[in-house]
Amino acid sequence: MLYRTITEAIGNTPLVAIPFHPERRCYAKLEHMNPGGSIKDRSALYMIEEAERKGLLQPGGTIIEASSGNQGIAAAFIGIAKGYKVIIVVSDKVSKEKRATLEAYGVTVVTCPATMLLTDPKSYHNVACELQRATPNSFMLNQYYNQANLDSHYTLLGPELWRQTDGAITHLVTAAGSGGTVSGVGKYLKEQNRAVQVIAVDSDVSFRTTGGNPKPYVLEGMGVDYETPLLDNGVIDEFMAVSDVDALQSLRKLARSYGLLVGPASGAVACAAERVAARLRPDELLVFICGDSGRAYLSKNFYTQ
């Protein structure tokens, strides 16, 4: 396949069978095969191009985003390819590899101390908002509150999964953070087949799981840590809370038993998927979404403990 631009290469990532239970059909959706290395390529492209269509992002402008890493990387390479300046705000929880990747693209990286709540005035989200207000001709993707985040997965990823499985998918297991992925894909799949089961994976100590009393956790790229308007409970059949310990154990199992090196949030998703797969009927088909690659986290020693 020949592409005119890097953005045309986003999507159509593979589904690979993972035999947690050999008699059950369970597939990993390998989103690290996107050109920016994660599922966030989809949402960043959709949000940027929607902003262009609406005139919110003008030629010569600046893209600003708060990110746990992957959304920032996606905004960086897409923004650079389209000729924009880019500023990405991250917390110091983000891996060294992600920060180094952002710097390799030549974008401006602002690092903030990690906060317990996204609503904290010192959080990377609020710092990004302040930067956007202070920067002329700028646009903030605002993944945590932008409806286009959800719409991107409804428009791009949902139809792709339906097409790849020939409409046979019966269970979706994916991480919940902003809620965009699980709500967007879940909405699309349920419109095709109301019986599809949508399982959202959350940290066992997140804001949502603890009823507003979160505790620190090491997983990046997941965890419902605020009252998100993008989380559509109407399409979610089950929340499954996973601990750091269980997520990292599954992470190592994916690498050492199946040759699949993915990020820590994908370890939590795989842990949940294995639990759900145990109760599948032989005629059912489960897809779990692996959002990014483990290569972005090697400095954290998750894979060698």
Helical stretch tally = 8
Instruction: Kindly state the number of beta strands.
Output: 10
Provide the residue-averaged pLDDT: 93
User: Percent of residues in helical segments?
Assistant: 25-40%
Kindly provide the radius of gyration, computed on alpha-carbon positions and rounded to a whole number of angstroms: 18 Å
Could you tell me how far the N terminus lies from the C terminus, measured between alpha carbons in angstroms? 40 Å
Largest sheet: 6 strands, mixed
- Record the strand order, biggest sheet: 1-2-10-7-8-9
Q: Give the DSSP E fraction (strand runs of 2 or more residues).
A: 15-25%
Write the layout of secondary structure elements.
Elements (H helix, E strand, L loop, with lengths): L14 E3 L7 E6 L9 H15 L7 E5 L3 H13 L2 E7 L4 H9 L3 E5 L11 H11 L3 E3 L6 H18 L6 E5 L4 H13 L4 E7 L34 E5 L1 H15 L5 H14 L7 E6 L15
Parallel strand pairs: 2-10, 3-4, 3-6, 4-5, 7-8, 7-10, 8-9
Antiparallel strand pairs: 1-2
Helix pairs in contact: 1-2, 1-5, 5-6, 7-8
Detailed description of the structure:
With 305 residues, this protein is an alpha/beta fold. Helix content is 35%, strand content 17%. The protein has eight helices and ten strands. It has helices spanning 40-54, 70-82, 96-104, 124-134, 147-164, 180-192, 244-258, 264-277; strands spanning 15-17, 25-30, 62-66, 85-91, 108-112, 138-140, 171-175, 197-203, 238-242, 285-290. It has a six-stranded mixed β-sheet. Strands 5-4-3-6 form a four-stranded parallel β-sheet, with helices on both faces. Strand 1 (15-17) and strand 2 form a beta hairpin. Helix 1 crosses helix 5 and helix 5 (147-164) crosses helix 6 (180-192). The mean pLDDT is 93.
